[in-house]
Amino acid sequence: MKRIAQIMYLNKDKYQEYQQRHENLWPEMEQALKAHGATNYSIFLNKENGELFAYLEVQDEKRYNEIANTEICKKWWHYMAPIMETNKDESPKTLDLSELFHLD
User: Fold this and answer.
1) Helix (H, G, I), strand (E, B) or coil at 55
2) pTM for the complete prediction?
3) What is the largest CA-CA distance in the chain?
4) Per-domain residue ranges for the chain?
5) What is the CA 104 to chain-centroid distance, rounded?
6) Catalytic residue selected from 22, 36, 78, 102
7) Angle (nearest 5°) at CA 55 between 25 and 45
8) Nearest CA among 22, 7, 11, 17 for reference residue 84
9) 11 partner at 20 to 30 Å CA-CA among 19, 21, 64, 85?
10) Does the active-site annotation cover 36?
11) Structurally, what CATH architecture does the domain formed by 2-96 represent?
12) SS3 90
């Protein structure tokens, strides 16, 4: 199992909107995440600065990364782009974190 942690950046006036969109996650997006091996996925908000901390576990990181090539993922990125910092392809700007410690 590979643990992935990332920081993303939410617009400060969009905290509620972000939460509502995830409470109503599209079934197709949920299916795509699971089909690409994502489990135990959580996102946390730092209300002080809009940073999002995302944590998930995957069986195969390469398989998980292939989700970026799916139409549903691109559609989700487009939907989320107005409320967070994104790259030119509308993917969220992320900062990958390196795991330094884990207690099982």
Assistant:
1) strand
2) 0.94
3) 38
4) 2-96
5) 24
6) 22
7) 70
8) 11
9) 64
10) no
11) 2-Layer Sandwich (3.30)
12) coil
